[in-house]
Amino acid sequence: MDIRFTPEQDAWREEVRDFLDAELPPEKAFDVEFDEDEALWEFSHAFTKKVGAKGWLGLNWPTEYGGLGRPPIDRMIMSEEFEAREAPLSGSIGWGLTAGSLLAGGTEEQKQHWLPKLGRMDLHVAEGLSEPAAGSDLASLTTTAKRDGEHWVISGEKTYTTWGTHADWLFTAARSDLTASRHRGITMFLVPLDLPGVSMSPMLNLGGGRQNHTFLDDVRVPHEYMIGEEGGGWHMIMNAFYGGGIHAGHAYYERAFAAVLEHCKQTRRGDGLLIDDPIVRQQLGQLALIAEQLKMLTYESVSNFNNQKPPSFGGAIGVVVSKEARPRFFELCNRIVGPLCQLQEGRFAPMRGQVEAWYRHSYANHAGGTSQVKRMVLATRGLGLPR
Ligand SMILES: Cc1cc2nc3c(=O)[nH]c(=O)nc-3n(C[C@H](O)[C@H](O)[C@H](O)COP(=O)(O)OP(=O)(O)OC[C@H]3O[C@@H](n4cnc5c(N)ncnc54)[C@H](O)[C@@H]3O)c2cc1C
Question: Relative to the CA of 136, which ligand 1 atom is closest?
Answer without folding.
Answer: 29
